[in-house]
Amino acid sequence: MILIIDFGSQYNQLIARRVRESHVYCRIEPPGIDLDLVRKINPEGIILSGGPSSIYEPTSPKMDPAVFELGIPVLGICYGMQFMVDALGGSVIKAGKREYGLAALTITDREPLFRALEPTTPCWMSHGDSIAQLPPGFSVTATTANTPVAAAQDVERRLYGLQFHPEVAHTPRGKNILRAFLFDVCGCRRTWTMKSFAADAVAEIRATVGPKKVILGLSGGVDSSVAALLLQRAVGRQLTCIFVDNGLLRLDEAEKLKTLFKEHLQITIRFVPAGKKFLDALKGVTDPEKKRKIIGRVFMEVFEAEALKIADAEFLGQGTLYPDVIESVSAFGGPSAVIKSHHNVGGLPKKMKLKLVEPLRYLFKDEVRQLGKTLGLPEAMIWRQPFPGPGLAIRVIGEVTASRLRLLREVDAVLLEEIRSNGYYRKLWQSFAVLLPLKSVGIMGDQRTYENIVAIRAVTSKDAMTADWARLPHRLLGTISNRIINEIRGVNRVVYDISSKPPSTIEWE
Ligand code: XMP
Questions:
Q1: What is the distance in angstroms between the CA of the first residue and the CA of the last residue of the chain?
Q2: pLDDT tens across 420-434, in order?
Q3: How far is the CA of 326 from the centre of ligand 1 (A)?
Q4: What does the H/E/C string look like for 156-208?
Q5: What is the DSSP letter of 366?
Q6: Cα(179)–Cα(184) distance, rounded to whole angstroms?
Q7: Which of 61, 118, 270, 419 has the fewest CB atoms in 10 Å of its CB?
């Protein structure tokens, strides 16, 4: 396994992705990690990530420099390299010229990291500081026009530094460099697969949970579903899932989930119909954040009441993923500014002293999907588009009422049917309808109408952090609009949302 030290780079998750794509397990830890823990983890290699700081600033993040004496190979990337150089007696200064973007890397020593590379290759630079002097024992292995020390190493001590970012796609041969480090330098083996992960996770869950009972809140999303399957494999009937039907789901969704979980996956599950409770609590509320808070609170109340019925449960399973874990331990701590309070379904039932089991906490989303496949989750579930916890309540703009929810559900079903049958469902990150609190004039037959407006939102995205509106064919948009207006009473106008994120968000509320 490889240990990645997070100095705050926006790319540190990418480093982890690259390592895992090579079938080597890795973990990201903050610079403050105790070296005793590092010894205990006993990684084959350590990668020091980049970061936004300057090493000579007093507040810049540092780790115990004794890390270089453990005899474990270390690869420092960008700030990580500068930290290594500084810690071992070299010097780093403000660069005469900031180097940002593509540069041509000229390799002067191919062994061992660059052995698969041509003498010059493109690399991605992003730094304002440069290495002025290398520590004793180090030599330069590559340069660029603006950066005389673009890579350096001390082969004897197995310490390597790269000023550029091998983890990003703009460094096309970056994968080869990282693989040379993993396999040739560290001697890692390709043992990280979802099958091996599942086996290890099952053993670990059994060891943690023993004969005790586990509760898990199922939402129908891929994360909680995969967590449920894994827990079920580990502890079988000691697991009870709770599904709170908040009445804010898409058409027929609750029923479909019920059949799938109960009949196909044989999971012990309690369905709690609570739509009315949610609607009552949302009465008269139009502010999006208030809606989220109310939904979060009611969910907790309903969940807790149900969980309390399960005698002597000691554990709460959660489908927390690695990006959330990393975010909360990142070197620069503090979650980024709250734009929308998303984690509405998080939190522990307070009355119960439950301990958390989070079997997916070291996985990325695509790994969770692979794991789901390994565990037998149907394709349709694995590839479900994300659906927000507050559900349709944040897609009925303005007050949420039973009749407006019903209207939106029908519209949304038509939209999804067209998106699916035209082969766009999996190509899109999300596609959905939004019911606006506006009416507009129309004409149907010879009659003047004054009815609702519906907006269609379809976006492409990799991780929901940024998104682009989907360039759906006009023909398909035309069909969607015609079908909605003709088939659904109460809508006489359909508009298509052509805003990207940022500055817009994916959801309208
Ligand atoms: P935005 O609208 O912020 O959404 O661009 C980014 C992603 O998060 C989903 N989303 C939510 N998920 N609770 C959730 O569980 C929420 O309150 C919530 N709000 C937005 C949204 O669907 C998109 O995938």
A1: 42
A2: 999 999 999 999 999
A3: 19
A4: CCCEEEECCCCCCCCCCCHHHHHHHHHHHHCCCCCCCCHHHHHHHHHHHHHHH
A5: H
A6: 8
A7: 118
For residue 421, report the distance from its CA to the centre of ligand 1, in Å.
Answer: 25
Token representation of residue 189: 């083996």
- How far, in Å, is the centroid of ligand 1 from the Cα of 420? 22
Q: Over 392-447, what HEC string results?
A: HHHCECCCCCHHHHHHHHHHHHHHHHHHHHCCCCCCCCEEEEEEEEEEEEEEECCE
Joined together, the tokens standing for residue 6 give 């997070």
Residues 18, 177: contact at Cβ < 8 Å? no
pLDDT value at 232 more than 50: yes
Rounded Cα–Cα distance for residues 171 and 104 (Å): 10
Neighbouring-strand partners of residue 457: 432
Phi, psi of 196 (to 5 degrees): -70, -35
C-alpha span between 199 and 475 (Å, rounded): 48
Tokens encoding 409: 């559900």
DSSP letter, residue 71: S
Token representation of residue 375: 């565990």
One-letter amino acid at 292 equals R
Give the DSSP per-residue string, 23-44. T--EEEE-TT--HHHHHHH--S
Ligand 1 mutation pick, 507, 508, 509, max ligand atoms within 8 A of CB: 507
Spell out the residues 6+ positions from residue 459 whose beta carbon is closer than 8 angstroms to its own: 428, 429, 430, 431, 467, 468, 469, 470, 501, 506
Tokens of 210: 């023993």
> What is the best residue among 324, 340, 468, 504 to mutate for testing ligand 1's pocket, by most ligand atoms within 8 Å of CB?
340
**pLDDT tens figures, 14-65:** 899 899 999 999 998 999 999 999 999 999 999 999 998 999 999 999 999 9
- Comparing C-alpha atoms, which of 444, 447, 458 is closest to residue 492? 444
> Ligand 1: distance of its center to the CA of 342 in Å?
6
Q: How far apart are CA 429 and CA 473, in angstroms?
A: 16
Q: Which atom of ligand 1 is nearest to the CA of 292?
A: 17
Res 331: pLDDT:
40
**Which residues are designated catalytic?**
78, 165, 167
Residue 461 Cα: closest atom of ligand 1 = 24
pLDDT of residue 408: 98
* Both structure tokens of 237: 């009937």
Strands 151-154 and 159-162: antiparallel
| Burial class of 202 by CB neighbour count within 10 A (0 to 12, 13 to 18, 19+) | middle
Mean pLDDT of the chain: 92
